[in-house]
Design a protein that fits this description.
single chain, alpha+beta, GIY-YIG endonuclease, 5 domains, eight-stranded mixed beta sheet, six-stranded mixed beta sheet, 20 strands, flat
Length: 596
């Protein structure tokens, strides 16, 4: 479509809540979004200046717009979610997780069977779940089998067929696992009592079953039926043991969904905890691939709608870490303290653990993706114009003002590139002057790189505060590199990051990967510099000791060290061993010096 037609479409959009769809020139759907006000939201794409590259590309590709008006924001959320799942547009977030989950089915039949399945058939049967783990399903079915005697056969147990004596009891009856409803040995009413108790247990309500079993145990005890009472006692113990293992949070908190989000530059992880009768009955984390720098609020809204649909949640209240819009049908709470806050913190912890596991796996399976994610994160955290694929960090080392040296360490794609590390002996500065030393080494480093036409780094890190940063900037100015390379200083005490011409430092989250890489760079530069400094001092100390011997010059010292490797070995050498290397005259002088 031509541009004027697109402008007309924008002008005629309604000021109502709804869903909009962007299409390219070939009619392929690019993006689906929701809005409180369709006209304002869609117009903002074409009137706003977009910083993010992908959003700019999206806007250029839009050739036509379609919209659907709905009654409320809740309807818009649901419709948006369904359209994204159906069309999977290129610029919408990708919800990673399409596997089928197991359910527990109570079959719609006389004397219902209870079993696990991955297929939900709309035949009037009841389905509980879906469960995120087959282990949970197996544990629940084992519990049910231990508490209640249910049939496992697939016979049609209609009243007429039972009365006509069509079926005979099987081995399960003789083993005591079934009460034989196929021969009319168990009434439908008695069987359904067990089914009702199973429904409660699957919903997380153990209370009624425990009360019922305890009443039965007391009845059998009073009637002197001690064996039957013991069987019921064992069932109570099984039920109480299972209940203790399930995470009891607070009996007052019932039928609540808890959601939290943890995100980085490329992915978001949304954790979902479902509470029923005071205990957590489900935990699931959804991974979301970002496409257009979506905010955590937008991502959490999308994920909540998807997860509640997927797991068929009907809870009327949800807990979240910040305010979101889900319409009027659901109560949204942001807990600040107490048990509710503890549950939310548990959800956040689950999301963080899931993210860490994913990152560890990606690091092993796809190191390039890991590096790309780190670089994108650093670019965002440090407010850089480009990803810092090549970083260099400088550190000065002088102890008590002696032998001033400097070190430059290099990281490429977030990892040390040791072959590119460089040591510097300070040449032009007299005495301990960190600022002047920093100015000298930065100048020498980049003057040489420019002369040799080497590729320059995207980021320079100076170990020190404003003073060292200012000194390094003088050298960049002299080389006309000020605007070509980003440069920051890191102060040791509070891990403050200083930027040129900005008096206010940047503080990164202490757990952020960006800060960890900067600290790693700084520590590596310090280690490398100290190592060089020690070598220089020890070499100097060795040479000075030998030079104090009258009549022993530099050439003699070199010959001795080549042969004996250390001053200690020279000191302990026999006279004839020394004579073999430097002759009798000099050997006598050295031997007498160490054997006074």
């Amino acid at each position: 479509m031509s541009k004027p037609t697109l402008e007309i479409q924008l002008k005629t959009l309604p000021n109502e809540p709804g869903v909009y769809q962007y299409f390219d020139a070939d009619g392929i759907i690019l993006y689906v979004g929701k809005a409180k006000n369709l006209k304002k939201r869609v117009s903002s794409y074409f009137t706003k200046q977009h910083d993010y590259g992908k959003t700019k590309v999206l806007v250029k590709k839009i050739a036509s717009i379609k919209h659907i008006v709905v009654n409320s924001e809740t309807d818009a959320l649901l419709l948006e979610n369904n359209l994204i799942k159906k069309h999977q547009p290129r610029y919408n977030v990708l919800l990673k997780d399409d596997k089928s989950y197991p359910w527990i089915c109570i079959k719609n039949e006389r004397f219902p069977r209870v079993f696990s399945t991955r297929r939900v058939i709309k035949d009037g049967s009841e389905y509980f779940g879906p469960y995120t783990s087959m282990k949970t399903v197996t544990t629940l079915l084992d519990l049910i089998k231990g508490l209640f005697k249910l049939r496992t056969c697939n016979y049609d147990l209609s009243e007429t067929k039972i009365d006509s004596g069509k079926y005979k009891v099987c081995l399960e009856y003789h083993l005591g696992n079934c009460k034989g409803p196929c021969e009319g040995l168990q009434t439908l009413e008695d069987y359904n009592e067990g089914i009702n108790a199973i429904r409660d247990i699957l919903k997380g309500n153990f209370k009624d079953s425990l009360i019922q079993f305890k009443q039965q145990m007391v009845h059998f005890s009073k009637s002197m039926q001690f064996e039957d009472a013991q069987v019921i006692k064992e069932k109570i113990e099984v039920l109480e043991n299972y209940q203790a293992k399930s995470t009891i949070v607070n009996p007052k908190i019932s039928n609540v969904d808890v959601f939290s989000i943890v995100s980085d530059e490329s992915y978001a992880y949304v954790n979902f905890l479902q509470l029923s009768f005071g205990s957590i009955i489900r935990s699931h984390t959804l991974e979301i691939k970002k496409k257009l720098q979506e905010s955590d609020k937008d991502l959490l809204e999308i994920a909540i709608v998807e997860l509640r649909q997927r797991f068929h949640s009907k809870s009327k209240e949800i807990y979240v870490p910040f305010k979101i819009n889900l319409g009027k049908k659901v109560k949204v709470s942001v807990p600040q303290l107490g048990d509710k806050k503890h549950i939310l913190d548990l959800s956040i912890r689950n999301a963080k653990y899931h993210r860490l596991e994913q990152l560890k796996q990606v690091k092993i399976v796809d190191p390039d993706r890991h590096a790309n994610r780190i670089m994108a994160q650093m670019k965002s955290d440090l407010r850089l114009k480009e990803e810092p694929r090549h970083i260099e960090c400088f550190d000065n080392s002088n102890i008590q003002g002696t032998h001033p040296v400097a070190a430059c360490v290099v990281f490429k794609n977030g990892k040390p590139s040791k072959k590119d590390y460089r040591h510097f002996n300070i040449k032009t500065v007299e005495g301990p002057d960190d600022f002047a030393s920093m100015e000298e080494v930065v100048y020498r480093r980049y003057k040489r790189m420019l002369d040799e036409k080497q590729s320059l780094p995207q980021l320079i890190i100076i170990d020190g505060g404003k003073g060292q940063l200012s000194s390094a900037l003088k050298s960049l100015d002299a080389l006309q590199l000020r605007k070509k390379i980003a440069i920051i200083g890191i102060a040791k005490r509070l891990e403050e990051l200083f930027y040129p011409d900005d008096p206010i430092p940047l503080y990164l989250d202490k757990k952020s990967e960006t800060l960890k890489i900067i600290q790693q760079l700084r520590n590596e530069a310090h280690r490398f510099g100290i190592e060089h400094h020690r070598n220089k001092r020890s070499k100097s100390a060795l040479n000075t000791e030998l030079e104090t011997i009258p009549g022993i010059g530099e050439k003699t010292i070199v010959e001795l060290l080549k042969e004996f490797k250390s001053v200690k070995r020279i000191a302990n050498a026999k006279l004839d061993e020394l004579e073999d290397v430097v002759g009798a005259s000099r050997a006598n002088k050295i031997y007498n010096y160490y054997h006074k």
